[in-house]
Queue: 2 jobs
Job 1
Amino acid sequence: MNVRNSGHLWKEIISGRTGNMIAGPCAVESYMQLEKVSAFLVEKQVKMLRAGAYKPRTSPESFQGLGREGVKMIHEICETYGLISVTEIMDIRDLEYMEQEIDILQLGSRNMYNYSMLKELGKTDKPILLKRGLMATIEEFIFAAEYIRKEGNNKIIMCERGIRTFEKETRNTLDLSCVALLKQKTSYPVVVDLSHSLGRKDIMVPMAKASLAAGADMLMLEVHPEPEKALSDAKQQLNLNEFHKILYSVGAL
Ligand code: PEP
Ligand code: MN
């Protein structure tokens, strides 16, 4: 097993030594694509790489991710570049092998209500990046974390990723009061996924600053070497230059 010791990694995360950025492409598309982003992250001292191998797409016709092959690429590249890997687990049957390859397991928005999955993730010692359900109340979100914790795993990162409202200008409505309330009601680190909250790039800087002001410990951003050619979420992925500018504007450089 070549992944990090979870206890040690968790101490690094909660002490802030892993930095406040989680970034990477929406989906791993090829070795070269992931390597380009990873080299850039290392150059900018970003320590956590997030990329999807199993993609929960609305249409079954859309790109579903590279699956196990993608997980392997994430694992290999993170090992080569010394990055911490984050990727989504969509099927609990993948847990056994993903535990060997990945440092932090993401539970996606659509599975926040999957109580049997929450319980199973409570039995691993892997840090879990738990995304808020598309229409979950803050109370339901905290209860979801409680399902994981109750089984023995308290290594949970709470991720606000916007909720569904009537508003159409943004992909979801970023709920910053959730961030402030999570900091008040729980002791878990909180990350704001700006890319999936906003679904657009032009207001990322002010919303990144606002997220940090509301108490977010970390920000999550999608970065792709050529966003216009991306196989998923092309509109919201930052190119390397745009990502650099955001890091600069939030004082991460
Ligand atoms: C993702 O993070 O890749 C994703 C699909 O986001 P969410 O689960 O928040 O919709
Ligand atoms: Mn995405």
Job 2
Amino acid sequence: MTATSLLGEIADVGRDRKRGGYSRHAFDQAEGELRTWFVERAQRLSLDVETDRNGNIWAWWGTPGPDAVVTGSHLDSVPGGGAFDGPLGVVSALDAVEILQAKGFRPGKPFAVVVFAEEEGGRFGVPCLGSRLLTGTIDADKARALKDPDGITFAEASAKAGHDPERFGADPEALGRIGRFLELHVEQGRGLIDLGSPVAVGDTVIAHGRWRFSFSGQGNHAGATLIGDRHDPMLPAAAVVGAARRVAKATGDGRATVGRLVPTPGGTNVIASTVDLWLDARVPGGDRTRALVAELSALAKEAAAEEGCLVEIAEESYSDTVTFDAKLRDDLGKWLGGAPELPTGAGHDAGILAGFVPAGMLYVRNPTGVSHAPEEFAEAEDVDHGARALATVLEHMST
Ligand code: GLV
Ligand code: MN
Ligand code: MN
Ligand code: MN
């Protein structure tokens, strides 16, 4: 099986007929189907599969143990996401194992393929939940209480999927086994198109986080309420949407996005009583990210007061700048014959793990430069090139 043919096997799972692309969310039916598929695929390669206390799946080639070489990614997606973000790293890992087995290679160290749970935060709002729980980066009580848009908690959804939410939390045993972690991922911007290379080595991840702005005002009638009598929370929310662009642009290299905004009750002829919006902010440098959020928070409070509304602002997740392990980066570049290095504006489980163990990433060219959307793409030739590159470096890492 090649990485391309493995992607073909799951091409119909979790298609989103309404939004286009794929919606595969933590512990939903589609993601469950992909998990079952992964286990079956891993077992066909004679890997021993176990699920850790946080719902991450580990497929061991040989005996589990310390100083393990670990590779993998995630199978969940954003709402209406592409086919590659997540699954590419998983299928490439399976393909790499098969390539190495076919040439008779046996790892000299413990070796595992891992699938992390809820990487996108597409359902419960906090990205990289599986790796944050594993590393103790998020409090287990906080994680258990996270709610999806239907009000189902992470604890309830995971219990329904057969996990024990009481066991969620820092897992020093699983973490302690990881010697080095390497994640292969589709490139999410134009980096590799511009470099004319099929594969790059990750160097940094930009500081990033998510903040929830909850505006409340007075729900009312759209026809009977004079403009001067309104306390419409949509007004300060709209001000934040516009300001996010303006403030991010002023930083020169920062990004700020409002991709989700929920008015309640959400009727055309109803002045909303509340509006929740989520700000995704990313600026090189943690201090600059926080400064951008502080500026937008002050502006939100001012705009809310002006409309006679209230606003509450809560940080839902934050990750500081990550620089991947220098030695691993150098080695990856060398083993791949001088692959270029690339920074990323996207967060990854490798970024969370990098705070605890030497971690690195490989990116595979995306000719559309689009990601988190159905147009995300990688040519079959590049996908298989990526899997072979992964096999090459894993062989070096695990010899
Ligand atoms: C992950 O894809 C992110 O949004 O950073
Ligand atoms: Mn193969
Ligand atoms: Mn993503
Ligand atoms: Mn991803």
